[in-house]
Amino acid sequence: MIKAKSKILSIVLVITTVLSLFASSSEIMSMATVHAEVTATLAMYRMYNPNSGEHFYTSGVGEKDSLIVAGWNYEGIGWYAPNDGHAVYRLYNPNAGDHHYTMSEDENHMLMAQGWRYEGIGWFSDGDKKVPVYRQYNRNAKGAGAHNYTTSSGERDMLIQATWEDEGIGWYASALPPSDDPTDPTDPEGDIEERPVYTDDSVSPSGRVSITELNTTKKSAQLSATNGVEPYGNYWFGKSIDGDISDNLGLAYSLSVSDQTRFASDSYAPDGYNKDELIEWGKYSGLNTDILKEYGYTGQGATIAYVDQPIGSHEIYNDINLHYKNNSTSETSMHGPAVLSLLAGKNTGTAPDAEVYYYAHAAWEQDQTTHAECLYQIIEQNKSLSDDKKIRMVGFSDNIDENEANADAFREAVAACETAGIMVWFCGEYGPMSFNPMSNKDDFSNLVVSQWWNESFNPELVFVPESGRTTAANEMGNKYIYWGQGGLSWTMPYVLGLYADALAIDSTLTQSELRQLIVNTAYTNSKGQKIVYPVNFIATVLENAGRTQDATTLRNAEKADEKYIYAVYNSSQISSSDVTAIKKYLSNVTDAKVLLADTKNADAKDIFVSLKADAKKRGGIVKGVQIFGTNSIVPSFSTSYKVQMANGEMDEMGIMASDLFYGNFRNQVSDVLKYSAYDHYEKNIDVTVTPDWPVARLPLSSGEYSAFFNKYNSYALNSGLEQQDIVNFSNPIFASTYHTDDMGTFLNRANSEWGILKTPYRLYGNLKGDYPVSNEVLGGFEVANLTAENKKGSSEFIINSHGQWNNIDNAYFVNGQEQRESFVNMDTINTVLSANPYYLDLWTCNNGWEMENNLTTKALSGQCLGVFSATHIISNNGVNCYASLSDMKKSNFYYFYYSYLKALNSGNTRSRAFYKAQRAYANALVEDMKEPLRLEGNVQFNLCNLITYHNFGVLEPNAATMSMTQ
Questions:
Q1: What is the pLDDT averaged over residues 873-879?
Q2: What is the pTM of this model?
Q3: Which of 437, 711, 715, 944 has the smallest set of CB atoms within 10 Å of its CB?
């Protein structure tokens, strides 16, 4: 927050006894006890209980998430703990509901003698004593919250001034992990997923905003072969992709590839396709199975078997509890390593801690006698095992097949197993689904029925993910294979792992009970298809076993981890075809669930309050807010452009339209409705201007959406949304040979000095008049050069100059007198830039004025894909493209573009990079507000810059999904 007066000072006021929200402390707190095994430097999360005033600290993500669901506020990372050192002990007072942390064994034992519960080692103190963690004590606290721990000397001093006692240094944290930018070790924009932090709001939603889930089920598109490359082809085991498929992104993502797969020519690969990222993405089994593992549901305690082809050796199952018997003459295969990694691989399996007996056989002989022999061996093995270690079930990526020899022998062996109390499972019981590539695997809407499957066949089946997965490989130098298309073979190990997890909870479960549970707990999508639902399945097993609290904790953890964006629109002021186009675009935003917020002519206050109330009720993680419509269709906030000059005079320049406050839920709506930079600075109002998630607005009017998304979708498929070349047109506006506002100078520094501009860039600049740019440029600030660059292909234009709501100026000085000509305006922009799609970043005034009927909206009706522009004046106070990075953080708008380029060139999408730049710029302004008011770098003007500068476009969809679905 801009003004740090809220949570810390509220601690001082808490003197009442608390009602601890740590439901049965033995349950939630024992999840890690708390630091059972330290393997790396740990982020220590800081939580705050608004009811008790207690601050709580944990390295456990699950524990953090459970507390958020229980109503605690997440306050970010308090410090980083080392991987070893002096133990810091954690204790809990069951009477007061308080926690205490200490390095002192004497203090630890003394508190235990007084009835405190010892909860183990919480973390470690750094032996190098790099970063002190200060400890303060509030003797006025009557219950919880008596102690505070912080690395901030400022917070410590504030509490001491508020009558807290300084108790010195509690322990030491590690130094912060180094940034990838040596000139900016603090990396202020961060890269964390923010859960909403709320303040109580006296305003209730009016009901004019209707919020519903976008309910779509995708279907695989019909892909065609290109230059000899067939859809869903196998290109693993050293095969190269010999055809040029650079214009077919969907075809590339459909292929099964290994880490050894290469394109015969780099030019054959489509833009946006990254095989290595795809392989890594494919390792996760999806559907929130990571939550099962986090809470210990990993199959540990269950003994199972699998019969398939030989496995050889591989890192993915070297450390699992594996017993292996090879009945074939081969050492390895393609199939065996895959099913074992899907079952029990440490990073890929659904039961990585189960005890697995694996029997390899020569399945390729197509004689089912080999299947039967393995089953009899399992029966014999069980005779030597104790009752608690006996094999309970065996899985086959196969079925009894009458087309193979000796099917009766296999059938008789299955019956023998069942008589011996061993369940036998076949993959034919399940239907196949594929994860859309590079999507959020925890969202059921990102699963489509595999393209080779006849959807009309047995609709009662439970579908299981089988494609979009990465498995082990150990032939011909390969280590991993990504399966663009798998088969029923891959469904069985996934489900068998879940059955193992269930048996580890309740060993009395029968095969018929498990079979019914997987059906009853399945997720049903909009097409009525049932999909395996791991968390619901295991939670139901827990409930049936009498472990209701554990089931609730698991469900709450899933709820806390849900990611979603709000898509805000007004159905009453756009056409039905607009709504259809919007929903089609949103179906390809696959990193989060999409929630449709239909405003029905609500004002900004009601929209904000409605979203805030919905997010608080829903829990989880907001990933963004996407607004569709101009300001008159979906209203923005109206904030005052009022600042105090250094000479004491007021500079009041009217009202700014701003969407910034849709970027977090930390504020009271009453505060942001009357917001101004002057009030913020002079009156110390408690308003947060740092966004917690991206906000983008597509300011189109009724009837314009279909054309825009036809253009945008075509561009996304052709480009893969890869970063484009940057082309700068720089027109410094001051009468000086020393151009402090020359973007070209800044871009050169970004490339050579900071190393954050990795994409190709080209410079143009003003060459007219008394003060031409001093950089080496390719040409002047001329329309012909802009047109020529657009004809070369898609690019990102950065233009800095004078501007108005309808125009960008070409401004220069002749004999000391300023001359102005129109560079581009509303009448010319779509003629000047008509050849190829482009992005436009405008460091100009007013080009986004009132969010409608301006240069920005005109450009978006042409070839433009998205615009960064200002809804009011952009101030040049403090601007200096020659400033050091530390000085650039002091109210200098170049720091926004420094942070934007850094994020963009680190692989972030355009909207994500804009958001991270907003965060960095806002955080820098927060810090600068501690300094006295000054003319150069006046923080009030820069606060106005932050509030007025907007991303007019869309949060990026998943280009891979767009290319493969319809």
A1: 91
A2: 0.81
A3: 711
